Amino acid sequence: MFKMNAIARAVVRALVGCTLGVALAAQAAPVNVKIIGFNDYHGNLESPGSFGVNTLVPTASRPAVGGAEVLAAYVAAMKAGNPNTVVVGAGDFIGATPLISALFFDEPSVETLNKIGVDFVAVGNHEFDKGKDELRRLQNGGCKIPADPNSCKGFGSAATGSFDGARFKWLAANVIETATGRPLLPAYGVKSFGGVRVAFIGMTLRGTPGIVTPTGVAGLSFADEAATVNALVPRLRAQGIESIVVLVHQGGFQNTLAGVAGQPITSDINGCTGDIKNVDGSDSDIRAIVRQLDNAVDLVISGHTHAAYNCSANTVDVRGTTLANAVTTARPTGMPNRAGRLIPVTSASAFGRVLTEVDLVLETSTRDIVSVSPVNRLVDRSNPAINAAIAADPSVRNVVAAYKTAVSPLANAVIATITTGMSDAANASGEMEAGDLIADAQLQATQPAAVGGAQIAFMNAGGVRNPGFVKPAAAVYPYDLTYGDAFTTQPFGNSLVTMTLTAQQIKNVLEQQFSGCRGQTANRIMQISNGFSYRWNPAGSCDTRITDVSFTPTDLVSNPALPTVTGPTDNLVIAGVVQNPTRTYRVTVNNFMATGGDGFTTLVAGLNQLGGAQDIDALVAYLAAFKAPAAAYDPASAFLAKPRIRN
Q: Fold for domain 412-646?
């Protein structure tokens, strides 16, 4: 047998020790990971317009942003800088989409997201607009049943006449199917980087049933967000997972108290001014969630409010040390969790305008995330490198172009002429010009006795979508309004519901527009139809704000362009007092509101409910009276009886 002498043994020991040291050093080397996040895509295959990095950028100087092909190119460029990359979303990737996606049942949204390279997406409330079965179809693929010619176009799938479904995974940790007691979809997804596994927990706000039609959430329950995450932590740790990221469809707003007590009056996509509040300045839901999270969570990517923020002024070392500055905008370094530790919380606006680029460092020995550096980046369509990349690989652009061609005959059909734009911005009393138009259309559609006998119509302000009835930048007024323009403002496909309410119930639902009154969680001023008006007192308290309400019967059916008064004015409320509490009226709302959506629970008790046309169909029918050669619709016309709301 060969025996080593002392010198040989010493050499071997040295070599073994050196090799082992190198191996241990390699094992201990940290792993750099990139997370690319965004939220509230809402099927914006095309650019949603211009956007600025902050509110100081003049409107004329804000670049055009977004679009599926530009998003894909930005994601590809970010991935090129780090092979350890994962692309995630915080919900509402489908639903409330432009016609180019909605007409085709949001299959174009899924197909473009596949090509962008998304890995995991939290469900949002709009994922449930068409119910759990339709969400599962979009996840798993297959055509609409019963068959529909607008399903399975296949422009972004494997073959014409097919729909592949999502290659990414929707995550629904807190969405429980009541029949089974289990999550509707996977609670989390896991990716491994350099031997370290990272978990992504995805979920939507627990209040989803209050903002989605009952048919959309039938058979489902929605659990507390923080409690859901905390219950999953031990399960993940049992699998050896210590790195945990939360994707949650809930958020807040920067700068809600602008100008008050020295609060800055600007906001920035990388800012966190005002500590992320609700619109009324109260503590935001996202802060409340983070405040209850287990210390194992190291990053929260949020959404829902369509706001941009980056609550992480510096690169945050999760062991408690602050590293080098990642961005320059001053803001808090995170939100406090249950243990009081600050963790980064981000949101990337909406419609593909912004991407959140997060650089993580993973420690292989502990399997922990040890540093987090998020930056929100504008998805600028003028970027030369991005445009060169799209020219080199136009595959996503080609998919969008194919759907644009398929939708154009309907989208470009002129339905009316308007004299000027009508935005979804409310005045000081809460009235929107676009909202007035929609409420009138819904009243006209349900006024005939056979379809409801409506006298009044209410429209939820949140259902009047951007930018209202406003012409494209290159057009001039008078403007020929197209079906596509109208659909952009009314994208939900809600149906109309006419019900009987008493005068007292009308007073109650008007009071319910204000935060803290009758269960309402935010100020939500409804839009009202011609002939109805009221006055409210901002200094009042719950059930004392509505001071005067009047109703003048007005016929919108015979001639919408020249409505006629058909009866005397009825004063429902005078000086805060309901004059005849039991007197009844027929009131039209959309099915979302009729079932208590946006907190209008008073409407649930409405009697003799009768379903009607879809909201977009009612709008198109009303506007037909203002199509050439007839006179254009003028929002300043005296016959519209404005203002309808006063404070």
A: 5'-nucleotidase;  domain 2 (3.90.780)
